[in-house]
Design a protein that fits this description.
The structure holds two protein chains of two kinds.
Chain A lengths: L5 H6 L6 H34 L16 H5 L6 H33 L2 H16 L2 H11 L7 H8 L7 H4 L1 H26 L3 H9 L4 H12 L1 H17 L2 H6 L11 H11 L3 H25 L2 H4 L9
Helix pairs in contact in A: 2-15, 4-5, 4-9, 4-12, 5-9, 9-12, 10-11, 12-15, 14-15
Chain B lengths: L19 H44 L1 E5 L3 E5 L25 H32 L5 H13 L6 H10 L6 H25 L3 H9 L4 H12 L1 H17 L2 H6 L8 H12 L4 H35 L1
Antiparallel strand pairs in B: 1-2
Helix pairs in contact in B: 1-11, 2-5, 2-8, 3-5, 5-8, 5-11, 6-7, 8-11, 10-11
Classes of the chains: A mainly alpha, B mainly alpha.
Chain lengths: 314, 313
């Protein structure tokens, strides 16, 4: 479906070296994008796999060791605990906050006048926009184990002794810290999905005597099934790979009790300097990310996106 | 009140027609129930949002207070917590970490990081977004599919390889290296935002410029660019914040104190003054948050559409 451009042939009767002009145009417009993406995206992805085959260490010495790093996973005494942490962390953050709280917030803020609903949604977006270290600082104050922290101030009013929440339940801390940020994406997506549910359906259900709960359960939820699936898939990947808030608030501790897989990669590779073993660990995440990305375009109406362009073709 | 004669199939008349008073009473009851329901929703939302609102209020209050009693109630206004802006040596508690770099040097580094990221993302994504929106070229579908997968791909997993790569390119310890990494990892997202905006411009506009004798390049920057300035504004603000708020990449790639950014500065302050001086930590935190807060206040209304428009573009 190529649209011809008659005007051009008028202003330029004998197209001089069209192929070279065209190449120059492509190089000008797409060149920078392709160059940067290849150097800082594609090459590192390949490099991760290659580094995983070496035993490069902090002194940048090392040779090719083949698959020894990958076989070493089985002998890594910390890995079982790290994997357990990861499963618990991803599952509970996803269900309680990224989907659960996101859905609750979207449902509640669409029940009230939109002006007020927007204010509440904006409040929930605030943590996402806050610099990561500042957000972590808020939590360090919240869970401060001395009697000056917020939590222990509240406990003090109730006559309870100060509690070191991070030691008491590291899982709880990392789930809540990430959940309060993660809920906002689901909230935004679900809100627009709920708003696009035709008003007639809800009115019809109400006329038939459905309670609010029934309307949510049997009208709204089935209609926003697709956005919910999207958020689950997208956020699972995001949770599997992000660790900055855990690093900042608990440091993965006490000991390795709140270290998730991605943080373990960071600790082994960057903090300990085991670049070879760390890259092998990271390669697993790269694979997971690549496989998830394969399915990503299905969610985004890819066919529409690659419809033929408006000007011209080769 | 006149009776209405129904002509359809006979419906068993379950109740007699209501009087005006009955209708009014029903309406009142419905309104009461609605008010009660709404109050319940407001209360629940307010309670749920407290864990977010309270810490931010504390942060701002603590940064201007001499003392925060019971971990919550600020008292005694002071600007002393903001002394990091004008006092060179803050006086370390442990004294083992050495001196902090000058705050204005740190701010400058952060601005260079944020502005550099913005320039690269805006220029590269606008060029590429225009081209994939308007031109066909060999393997265009493959290019778009690849870009879409990179958008979904979690760039943070490449940290180890990027560290080795930057070391090889001699870009460790420099803000430039971090700029290139952060900008590139967000390019696919920005590409699709810009493509969406270019797709929205009617082809006729460009066509008429070309017929009037403008070259392709000229048509691009005089006719098309002004049409997509909202898109440019959106990705500019987002990329500024990505650069400004980043922690992991600067933590990994920048070890030299003179190249520190605000994230590393605040992190060092927390490391030194935790449990000791919440006022100072809060003041640095508020200072660091200013661009995010401005962004939040000015774009709060459009934020929902932008985030969604981005992922869906």
């Amino acid at each position: 479906m190529t649209t011809q451009v008659p005007a051009l042939s008028v202003t330029r009767p004998a197209p001089p070296r069209p192929a070279r002009r065209r190449t120059a145009l492509v190089a000008l417009f797409l060149g920078p994008f392709v160059l940067l993406t290849v150097v800082f995206f594609v090459i590192p992805a390949v490099l991760t796999g290659l580094l995983g085959l070496t035993d490069l260490d902090a002194s940048f010495q090392g040779g090719v060791v083949g698959l020894a790093n990958f076989r070493g996973f089985a002998a890594d005494p910390l890995l079982p605990r790290v994997l357990l942490n990861t499963v618990v962390y991803v599952f509970f953050t996803l269900m309680c906050f990224n989907v659960g709280m996101g859905l609750v917030l979207a449902l509640m803020t669409t029940q009230i006048p939109d002006r007020v609903g927007t204010v509440f949604r904006a409040i929930w977006l605030l943590p996402r926009l806050t610099p990561q270290v500042v957000y972590a600082l808020l939590w360090l104050w919240f869970v401060d184990p001395t009697k000056y922290g917020f939590l222990n101030t509240l406990r003090g009013w109730l006559g309870l002794a100060p509690l070191d929440l991070i030691s008491w339940s590291p899982w709880l801390v990392i789930v809540i810290v990430n959940g309060l940020i993660g809920a906002s994406l689901g909230m935004v997506i679900f809100t627009s999905a709920i708003k696009s549910v035709p008003e007639d359906y809800i009115r019809a259900a109400r006329v038939d005597g459905a309670s609010t709960f029934h309307i949510i359960r049997y009208v709204i939820l089935p209609l926003i099934r697709w956005p919910v699936t999207f958020v689950i898939v997208y956020q699972t990947l995001a949770l599997l790979t992000s660790y900055e808030y855990i690093l900042l608030v608990t440091g993965g501790g006490p000991f390795y009790d709140s270290t998730v897989y991605a943080l373990y990669v960071f600790k082994r590779a960057i903090e300990n300097g085991d670049y070879g073993y760390g890259a092998a660990l990271a390669f697993v995440l790269v694979l997971v990310g690549a496989i998830a990305a394969q399915f990503y375009w299905r969610f985004l109406n890819f066919e529409r996106m690659i419809t033929q362009p408006k000007i011209e073709s080769d | 009140m006149a009776r209405v004669v129904t002509t359809g199939p006979a419906v068993p008349d379950r109740r007699s027609w209501l009087t005006a008073e009955d209708v009014a009473a029903l309406a009142r009851r419905a309104r009461r129930r609605e008010t009660a329901g709404r109050t319940a929703v407001y209360t629940a939302l307010a309670l749920l949002s407290l864990p977010i609102i309270v810490p931010y209020l504390w942060l701002i209050a603590a940064s201007f207070s001499r003392r925060v009693s019971y971990g919550l109630l600020p008292s005694g206004f002071t600007l002393d917590n903001w002394r990091f802006l004008w006092v060179a040596n803050l006086g370390f508690v442990s004294g083992t970490t050495g001196r902090l770099p000058n705050i204005w040097q740190v701010v400058w580094n952060s601005l260079v990081l944020a502005a550099g990221t913005t320039v690269i993302v805006v220029v590269v994504a606008t060029l590429a977004g225009y081209f994939v929106s308007r031109h066909d070229f060999r393997r265009r579908a493959a290019f778009l599919k690849g870009a879409l997968m990179l958008q979904a791909f979690p760039g943070i997993t490449l940290l180890v390889a990027l560290f080795i790569l930057l070391r090889t390119l001699n870009l460790l310890n420099s803000v430039a290296g971090v700029v290139l990494v952060i900008a590139t990892l967000h390019l696919p997202f920005a590409l699709f935002v810009m493509k969406g905006f270019f797709d929205g411009i009617p082809w006729d506009i460009e066509m008429s410029a070309l017929i009037d004798g403008a070259s392709r390049l000229r048509a691009w920057y005089t006719v098309l660019l002004p049409q997509v300035r909202n898109g440019i504004g959106a990705i500019a603000m987002f990329s500024f914040l990505w650069g400004w708020t980043d922690y992991i990449f600067v933590l990994t790639f920048i070890l030299r104190r003179s190249s520190w950014t605000m994230a590393l500065y605040l992190n060092a302050i927390i490391g030194e003054y935790r449990f000791v001086d919440y006022g100072l930590m809060a003041a640095v935190g508020v200072f660091y948050m200013i661009p995010s807060l401005l962004f939040f206040l000015f774009t709060q209304k459009h934020l929902m559409q932008l985030t969604l428009g981005g992922t869906k573009a």
